[in-house]
Amino acid sequence: MLKIAYHDCYAHPLPEGHRFPMEKYTLLPQQLLHEGTLEEDNFFEPHPAEDGILGLTHAEDYIEKLNKLQLDRKEIRRTGFPLSKELIAREKTIMQGTIMAAEYSLQHGIAMNIAGGTHHAYSNLGEGFCLLNDNAIAANYLLHTNKARRILIVDLDVHQGNGTAEIFQDSEKVFTFSMHGKNNFPLRKENSDLDIPLEDGMGDEEYLDILKYNLPKLINQHKPDFIFYQCGVDILASDKLGRLSLSIDGCKERDRFVLESCHEKGIPITCSMGGGYSEEIRVIIEAHANTYRLAQDIFF
Predict the structure, then answer these.
(1) Which Pfam families does its entry note (predicted)?
(2) What is the torsional sign of CA 100, 105, 111, 114?
(3) Domain membership flag for residue 228
(4) How many domains does the chain have?
(5) Which pLDDT score, from 0 to 100, does residue 22 have?
(6) N or C: which end of the chain has fewer CB within 10 A?
């Protein structure tokens, strides 16, 4: 059964006018239930992750600053979120959602988190709507518990996974792969194990050609026994914060290729939602929903 992390706190309200589309966290599960792609049994509710597990990835003093709400104004502004106890609880719950999804992936081949994909969080600071890095935390949890030996992080959000790259810059067990807009945020990029910067306006055909050339090579060379997939839909032409020009169908084909690649090789995969900032919320929901539909079709 496809298992998916979801908690009501994912849609924690932000001040009116805030540009982050929190409503997608409520609307996406509603859509998937309404159309019959998922049932209530597909969802599980995570609890906040323990600080000890977070400490496998993030600096102890940074975790303490979050717990005590002691980020300074510059640090708060860098995250993009107003700091509160509720926000920290939400972030920790998202982290646990990806950890638990990884456990389910080991059992069923795939699991997903309605939130997550917080790839801008560094080991010691937050950035770009990310305070803690869920894929990094879950990857280190699997390594620490000897449930995985070699991990590949496939980051296909339109923005580079700069925090993930920093966290694993010296790791021989985690390979970081990021395909992202060359001229997109963040202005200062980190060095992933493989970065592919994409030119503005790139469409379906060129994008998919690049992905289909590189991903099989990485799987064959790195031989991962687990994959984390950051499947942001901000690669769409309609996205307000992206500079690429993929269609809904192109985005769906991207997901199909990644999921089928894992399924055919028998590699467990955990998917985190990532970004999506199109003007119309229905476009965001449709693009994200396609990932879940494909997971059901391919794996179950």
Answers:
(1) Hist_deacetyl
(2) positive
(3) yes
(4) 1
(5) 83
(6) C
Structure tokens at 130: 């990310």
Which residue range forms the structural domain that includes residue 127? 19-299
Question: pLDDT (tens digit, 9 = 90+) per residue, 4-31?
Answer: 999 999 987 666 556 567 889 999 999 9
User: Does residue 219 lie within any of the structural domains?
Assistant: yes
Q: What type of residue is 105?
A: S
pLDDT in tens, 63-109: 999 999 999 999 999 999 999 999 999 999 999 999 999 999 999 99
- The size of the chain, in residues, is 300
In whole angstroms, give the CA distance from residue 283 to residue 300. Answer: 26
pLDDT value, residue 14 = 65
Find the radius of gyration of the CA atoms of the chain.
17
Structure tokens at 289: 């929903």
CB 272 within 8 A of CB 295: no
The pLDDT value recorded for residue 17 is 54
Query: Is residue 223 within 8 Å of 146, Cβ to Cβ?
Result: no
Where residue 235 sits, what CATH number does that domain have? 3.40.800.20
Instruction: Answer whether residue 13 is part of any domain.
Output: no
Summarised one tens digit per residue, pLDDT across range 46-65 is 999 999 999 999 999 999 99
> Residue 20 has what pLDDT?
67
For range 125-151, the mean pLDDT: 97
Nearest of 130, 158, 142 to residue 235 by alpha carbon: 158
Phi, psi of 230 (to 5 degrees): -90, 105
